[in-house]
Design goal:
7 helices; Rossmann fold; alpha/beta; 192 residues; 5-stranded parallel beta sheet
């Protein structure tokens, strides 16, 4: 029997540095029933990023028009003039392919999507073992100034305070164990 996605949605959320992207990529690689939901963004493409693969890049006016047209499941102005969002058309595209969309989004967006699709959504919060460990991981990337590092750590502490809004919490102290736990949770959700 063919897999029926049943308009299910998998949301994976976490503070920056918790391992969300690593776990999301692992699940997408191992489970063909899943498909990555490409977010829309008003920022410029970086490096080798491609529109329609990494993000749907658009200008602020286009994004604001889509807000007015109610084309988004969720959207947020993350920084002044920098919008990110999940297009309804992206979910429809993935469901039409017989797959379950995987939304790799921030905590506020995750809560919003979950409230719109309460019966068909699984939300998973990836938690770092501690804020100190999260800070160490972010420092090891070598991409942060002292100010941006502190801002990310403060934001992470705030986001962790919302973890109980989600269906499942996976503590990523050790990546292989966190991946295995996430896999078990998702396989159960997909009934495979």
């Amino acid at each position: 029997m063919a897999f029926d996605p049943g308009n299910k949605i998998l949301i994976i959320t976490a503070p920056s540095g918790a391992g969300k992207t690593s776990i999301t990529r692992y699940l997408l690689e191992k489970l063909p029933q899943l498909a990555f939901s490409v977010s829309a963004a008003t920022r410029q493409a970086r490096g080798n990023e491609k529109s329609g693969v990494d993000y749907y890049f658009m200008d602020v006016e286009d994004f604001q028009q889509k807000i007015q047209d109610q084309a988004f499941v969720e959207w947020e102005m993350v920084y002044e003039g920098k919008y990110y969002g999940t297009l309804k058309s992206e979910l429809d595209r993935i469901w039409a392919n017989g797959q379950v969309p995987v939304l790799d989004i921030d905590v506020k967006g995750a809560i919003h999507v979950q409230s719109q699709y309460p019966n068909t959504t699984l939300s998973m919060f990836i938690e770092p073992p501690s804020v100190d460990e999260l800070k160490r991981r972010l420092e090891s990337r070598g991409t942060e100034t002292a100010e941006s590092l502190q801002a990310r750590v403060n934001k992470a502490s705030y986001e962790i305070s919302f973890k109980h809004h989600f269906h499942r919490i996976v503590i990523n102290a050790q990546l292989d164990k966190a991946r295995a736990e996430a896999m078990e949770i998702v396989r159960d959700f997909l009934a495979i």
